[in-house]
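step: validate -> pass
step: tokenize input -> pass
step: predict -> running
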Amino acid sequence: MRQNDPIPAIEEAHARHLATLPFEDERDFEDADRGFLGTLRDPVIRDADGKVVWDASTYDFIEGEAPTSVHPSLWRQSTLVARHGLFEVVEGLYQVRGLDLSVMSLIEGDTGVIVVDPLISKETAAAALELYREHRGDRPVTGMIYTHAHLDHFGGALGIVSAEEATERALPIIVPEALVGHAVAENVYAGTAMARRAGYMYGAALARGPRGQVGAGLGQTTSTGHPGIVVPTHEVTATGEKVTVDGVELEFQMAPGTEAPAEFHFLVPRYAALCMAENVTHNLHNLLTLRGALVRDPNLWAHYLTEAIELFGERADVMFASHHWPTWGRARLIEYIAIQRDLYKYLHDQTLRMLNKGMTGAEIAETMTLPPDLEKVWGTHGYYGSVSHNVKAIYQRYMGWFDGNPARLWPHPPQALAERYVAAIGGVDRVVELARGAYDAGDLRWAATLLDHAVFSAPDHAAARGLYADTLEQLAYGSENGTWRNFYLSGATELREGTFGTPTATAAPDLVVQLSPEQIFDAIAITVDGPAAWDLDLAMDVSLVDLDRTFRVTLRHGVLVAEEEAAGGRDVPLALGLTKVRLLGLVAGDLDSPGIAVTGDITVLRRFLEVLDPGDPDFEIVLP
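step: predict -> pass
step: emit ->
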């Protein structure tokens, strides 16, 4: 694929950053290298079919001085997160870093090892565990902890232990309250759209290299193996709760509604080690992730960080987290938690101050500047979240999508708006001409805006698409934020080569099977094509024979409703008896395989299935 040199405006900006940012501070490099024990002999991890799901060597190019095609601050962060292998945090506590987006931690107990946050894919998790055992012996897994409800912290669980073995051994699997419900809802309900956008955000399909993907700030990218979940056995529900696993006492602090809707921190007194999950990392995190999610609460986030200092600060000598490298020393870790607390609180409070003066989210984002004492700390920089999109998220949390200007209450949708703008400007060729002038002048944001309208008005216009791809590429070169860079490069790639689809499927079979019946019916309801079902009035009973539960399912006014019923309820034209797993197969379109007991009119079921409209994992993003 053709790639351009950075334009002078980008190179000049990078030179300014090199002159003004604190590159002399190299403590992060010392911490990231501390305790290194070794890495994989073969950096390539494959699934059972031989498909590569992770290749750590693809980041070997990240060394030395930053090329002009990468923001020097992002290059520094990418250099740190590209380090891979097994690291000793303290004797008895270890981390595997650089084998997935997230970090897997391992706490040694009296007889075995407790695994914390087993990555995204079972293949990467299994490789991480094997690497640990190579250096620490073949210790059995005696427990697992999922710190929060995001896929990169539980998805690889089946690479650590099978569901059957976990049940047979009564393996303790500890999670914050309501984790499973939040996890499956996020990965299934809006999972198709989120996963497609995550392909842009993490750049898993992009070529690696100085002009390609260099990481995502929080880690390199997402593995592309097989995610699943081993069902938790214990939910922590209250701050101060203590649980002992394999002789190791764990003391928990609940932190719901922060980086994840279900999340906790915990202290390991045996090792004087504090796990801060994903609420204290070495970057500014997201308040609204670019893949899509509920807006997080920075005020609550700050509160829980203050509480963590009060609860654990004087009892911890090292802090580790679900991403990045640890922080050693009591004074240092307390100071760093406080800096992160002040970071989120400052963004929250100052956004609200300006919001109450009538400023919109976009205006506040352009105005917001961090205090110099925060800005000089590398871990406050927006490699993953950003000041810009976090401020807009805070505005959205309090005020919604509408900024109060009546002209913006009912705008045309993007394609119709683009057609009108292009016509008003004088046609697509004139728009491209103006965009070329903006590009040459280094006004890339304006060029991108013009070209967005151009391609939404005329998707096949070669000059518009070509210049738009070039513009996004330059924006990528200039971005300090890893996920912004990946979004820009993904857009450029799809403009030049077509859609790359969804590299990592979040709604994987091993995860979907953990849906409750209510969640399954909710997921089905989301796929009903409402207008196609307006005139239908259907009802059937669905008995899940393995769970001894029966649901009355109706479809009226384009709305599917499932209500649990006692046996022997009102008559309906169709009754089905099947297992939960067979129901999932049925919803996926398998009507013919055995395992369904049918009583009544099967055409009712066929009419149900005819109006289901599943999501499209290849939908367009940068084109209409």
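step: describe -> The two ends are 23 Å apart (CA to CA).
step: cleanup -> pass
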